């Protein structure tokens, strides 16, 4: 057996994971590291692009029209944003609350698809938002400086961002250590990097190879806090905070795979939990998830990294 691509410790025995999002049921070998606990794919398929059909991407998500704030509101933009952190508002303010990113800060969303999130953030008052995605056909320019680049991180200007975000992107990267070094280069001193990823937790213990977040072969690494600390440290980051944000999805999604039901239906749409589970069952799953999050055992988390040195 080989060694861990993160910490170089020994990998445990290989086990096959089926491709179940599309439902091809092809098998891919994964193994868990005996040191850092990361579950990883052993061989990345050469045709990995085929496992990302068009409808997988956020390309067709509806992009909101940009609304520029009136001048007097733009002048007080940071004060307005600080107020929004105090409210129980949208998801994005919840993600950003621990680092209190300001409206004037320069933000880059990495792996952003067509840029729906940055457009929404602009409309919430963030004035300096961009995105990049290597896998889109071409870039986008939405006006007001809101742009999506089709670029690798190494092609962007160094020390130019206050905040970088990766929302469920990092687990798809074949060389996470190298991507973190590129992130470090892009950030201003003391800049932040937010990484939202699935993590090895209780759902793995319960469902093993049916755990929906294994998502073979698209997810190359299912990280742990230990593996993230190693990667962060090597790239010149410290992890300030880890917040678990798992949901009922870890239960209802994995239950579907256990019953051999792919995530995408015959019409190439994602299945809805309400078609398979009662409101009571889903409420129960949601409560279980919030309990696991409190115990730091949920199957997804937000890592807050700060650039050091
Ligand atoms: Zn390891």
Q: Classify the fold: give the CATH topology.
A: Rossmann fold
Low-confidence stretches: none
Counting copies of identical and different chains, the oligomeric state is single chain
Bound molecules: zinc ion
- Which structural category do the helix and sheet elements fall into? alpha/beta
Q: Give the averaged pLDDT, no decimals.
A: 94
Listing every helix as H and every strand as E from the N terminus to the C terminus, the arrangement reads EEEHHHEHEEEEHEHEHEHHE
Helix content: 25-40%
| Radius of gyration from CA coordinates | 20 Å
Q: Let me know the number of strands.
A: 12
Per CATH, the superfamily is: Vaccinia Virus protein VP39
N-end to C-end Cα span: 36 Å
Widest sheet, order of strands: 6-7-5-4-8-9-12-11
Count of separate structural domains: 1
Indicate the proportion of strand residues: 15-25%
Largest sheet: 8 strands, mixed
- Number of helical elements: 9
> What is the CATH domain class?
Alpha Beta
Do you know the CATH architecture?
A: 3-Layer(aba) Sandwich
Organism: Mucilaginibacter pineti
InterPro entries: SAM-dependent_MTases_sf
GO molecular function: methyltransferase activity
Keywords: Methyltransferase, Transferase
